[in-house]
Design a protein that fits this description.
37% of the residues lie in helices and 21% in strands. By secondary structure, the protein is of the alpha/beta class.
């Protein structure tokens, strides 16, 4: 009987977000393929689970695939996790999942926390359509072009940005459109979680008074905003009526 790959989402900061289904999956797995064995080893230790671990990260994913496919064919149940959130979403695993699909082996997704959806839900920006662009480019020119595309789009755009570049990126965005509504999510689900809402200029001012350390998610409103987005109380009242 063939095994199954369990694409398993893990907490992005708050351990209390680990579901009973995720715990059960990790407890029953014959093997846990993880981005960093030290990180996942610590997670399993905290929830009092001991399972065999194998590393699967961006530098060795391709070479790991034949072994994992073999073990799935032999009937093993394998959990795929990343350091936080969903494997394959700006994290390793997409090559492995494609190989599993190609070989017609079984897979299941065990849902859980997502920085993308957590930030979107708390952004106060339109959520009916959105684009997730992963990490913004390192090179300044490419980053500026990506931000310009986000400003031209008619839907909310979501990006990850590093603590080292968030200030420079926001200044760049302000140079393109200082009045565009945006949201910055910092340290989502963690002790010092923060949502900063406002125009680009307002968000820069708010962040300048606090900390710019941690993990950041940047959300940029699209060029076409729905009527209910108006800050006028009368509009909001009419919409609800």
């Amino acid at each position: 009987m063939a095994g199954r790959l369990y694409i398993t989402a893990t907490p992005i900061g708050n351990l209390g977000d680990l579901s009973g289904r995720v715990r059960e999956t990790l407890e029953q797995a014959d093997l846990v393929a993880c981005e960093d064995t030290r990180h996942t080893g610590l997670l399993l230790s905290r929830i009092e689970i001991k399972r065999p671990l194998i590393s699967l990260h961006e530098h060795n994913e391709a070479s790991r695939i034949p072994e994992i496919l073999r073990r799935l064919r032999e009937g093993e149940q394998i959990a795929l996790v990343s350091d936080a959130g969903y494997p394959t979403v700006s994290d390793p695993g997409q090559r492995l999942v494609r190989a599993v699909v190609r070989e017609k082996l079984e897979l299941t997704v065990i849902p859980g926390p997502s920085a993308v959806l957590t930030a979107l839900a708390g952004s106060g920006l339109p959520t009916d359509r959105f684009y997730y662009g992963g990490f913004l480019p390192n090179k300044r020119g490419k980053r500026e072009r990506e931000l310009a595309r986000a400003l031209e789009a008619d839907f909310t755009s979501i990006y990850f940005e590093s603590t080292h570049r968030i200030e420079a990126t926001l200044e760049m965005l302000a140079g393109l459109d200082p009045e565009r509504p945006i949201c910055v999510g910092r340290e989502l689900t963690k002790k010092f979680e923060q949502f900063v809402h406002g125009t680009t200029s307002e968000v820069i001012e708010t962040l300048s008074k606090g900390s710019t350390k941690g993990e950041f998610t940047l959300l940029i409103a699209g060029s076409k905003l729905p009527k209910w987005f108006s800050p006028k109380d009368a509009t909001l009242h009419d919409e609800s009526a």
